[in-house]
Design goal:
The chain is an alpha+beta fold. It folds into two domains: about 25-170, 60s Ribosomal Protein L30, Chain: A; about 170-420, 2-methylcitrate dehydratase PrpD (Orthogonal Bundle), CATH 1.10.4100.10. It has helices at about 5-15, 25-40, 55-60, 75-85, 100-110, 180-190, 195-215, 220-225, 230-235, 240-255, 270-285, 290-310, 320-335, 340-350, 365-385, 400-415, 415-430, and strands at about 20, 45-50, 115-120, 125-135, 135-145, 150-155, 155-160, 260-265. Strands 3-2-4-5-6-7 form a six-stranded mixed beta sheet. β4 (about 125-135) and β5 (about 135-145) form a beta hairpin. α14 (about 340-350) runs parallel beside α16. The longest helix has 22 residues, at about 290-310. The radius of gyration is 22 Å and the shape is globular. The N and C termini lie far apart (about 60 Å).
Length: about 425
């Protein structure tokens, strides 16, 4: 049984990491930095050199800039920022841009007026822009948050310099005080009224899924799965609905739409996987709201726990990692006790560990489809008394040590994979200017 102070501490952590946020901020940070450099130049740049952190690159490469079809990725963030950006509007730097303005941005890209490089920095959010034009030079650095200018220079005049505050090493958080038993105990002991915000967040994500069902967003996987042909093939029972709703919400998120999504640890897709499958399952099977709320707490806290073990520089796909949280929440909602919850997590780890992240993009919906399917399968196995044994691969008797093994793989062993993926992405983005 947890003490009152422990419950308060865990609740504060949950509230700080599980909350609604607008997506697509990384491309906007690029556009904002370029727009500011353009302002300092006094003219549209003739050349832009963009040095970006891995996080900025990955979360910008496949996303529609400002939610506009045909304006995908970093080249358009740079070009639109240079041609039309309003730096005083911060993250709304491109809100006034309309599709008829895209030809000028396309011309900027076709003329090879930008160069993309990976920045050698320990900052997660880092955008460095060097722009030249009209016989002048400008340099802008945004770091730490998408709107925080740390360096401004116009020709030889330094207007702002806070580079002393840049990180000297990666922040690899390890919340060693948290473990699966504490998460389970918290979820079943915390006063139920303290968890209502999780249900509100899950319903927000469901509303976003309905946007995809009624429109054209991202890959369109969620909407496709609700089509008449697909319904005849796979039906519309509980499992397909769980998958279609989660994929649909991801379709909207990955389209670059500037709307709020209920996130986990800053990730919209993690929040979607951690909430929507549980909400849809509860609605389909008449799970009591109190049971759903506690399942949501278990799911979201498990995702937070895994994310903290991994740190922010993991090369592992976060959609798949969130599947473990969804699995334990579903196992609890199916009537499972602590042993069943642990078994669900272990089953999930054995199933999905090792998938790399190659950036935020519409096809993340495919990953989410696998994540939801894996979560439900892992939970069902656990309820039937099936648990992957400790003789298998990275699974150990202790669920926490098993999660540590994932963390070591994703945080350390997969970094070379991450470097290769980033090199492929940056080279591909550079080739866009040559085509």
């Amino acid at each position: 049984m947890l003490s009152k102070s422990e419950i308060t501490k865990i609740l504060e952590l949950l509230r700080s990491e599980a909350k609604a946020a607008v997506g697509g901020t990384e491309p906007m940070a690029i556009a904002l930095a370029v727009a500011k450099a353009t302002e300092l130049l006094g003219c549209c740049p003739e050349k832009v050199v963009a040095k970006l952190s891995p996080k900025i690159i990955k979360n910008s490469v496949g996303v529609n800039v400002n939610g506009m079809d045909g304006a995908v990725g970093i080249p358009y963030a740079i070009a639109l920022g240079a041609c039309y950006g309003k730096p005083e509007a911060e993250l709304d730097v491109l809100n006034h841009v309309t599709p008829d303005m895209l030809p000028a941005a396309r011309k900027f890209i076709d003329e090879r007026r930008y160069v993309l490089k990976q920045a050698h920095t320990f900052e997660l959010i880092y955008v460095e822009i060097e722009a030249t034009g009209g016989g002048h030079e400008a340099k802008v650095i945004i770091a730490k948050s998408p709107t925080h200018f740390m360096f401004l220079k116009a020709d030889d005049k330094i207007l702002l310099d806070e580079r002393w505050d840049l990180a000297k090493e990666y922040n690899r958080t390890h919340e060693s005080w948290l473990n699966m038993k504490m998460i389970y105990d918290f979820a079943v002991e915390v006063p139920i009224d303290q968890l209502q915000f999780l249900l509100d967040g899950a319903r927000l994500n469901k509303e976003i899924a309905h946007m995809a069902f009624n429109g054209q967003y991202g890959l369109g996987l969620g909407k496709m799965m609700k089509g008449s042909f697909e319904e005849r093939m796979v039906g519309q029972n509980t499992m397909p609905r769980m998958i279609s709703y989660a994929c649909a919400a991801c379709d909207v998120r990955m389209s670059g739409a500037r709307i709020k999504v209920f996130c986990n640890s800053g990730s919209g897709n993690q929040g979607i996987v951690g909430t929507l499958p549980l909400l849809i399952f509860a609605e389909e099977t008449c799970v009591p709201e109190s049971k759903l709320l506690r399942g949501l707490a278990m799911s979201m806290l498990t995702i937070i726990y895994i994310k903290h073990l991994l740190g922010n520089m993991s090369a592992h796909c976060s959609c798949v990692l969130a599947s473990a949280g969804s699995a334990c929440g579903l196992a609890y909602m199916l009537g499972g006790d602590y042993d069943a919850v642990v078994a669900a997590v272990k089953n999930n780890i054995a199933s999905l560990t090792g998938m790399v992240c190659d950036g935020a993009k519409p096809s993340c919906a495919l990953r989410i489809s696998g994540a939801v399917n894996g979560a439900f399968q892992s939970a069902m196995m656990a309820i039937e008394g099936i648990c992957v044994p400790s003789t298998d691969g990275i699974i150990e008797d202790s669920v926490d040590r098993s999660l540590d093994n994932i963390a070591n793989i994703g945080r350390d062993a997969m970094l070379e994979n991450d470097s290769m993926i980033l090199r492929i992405i940056t080279e591909k983005e550079g080739k866009e200017a040559d085509n």
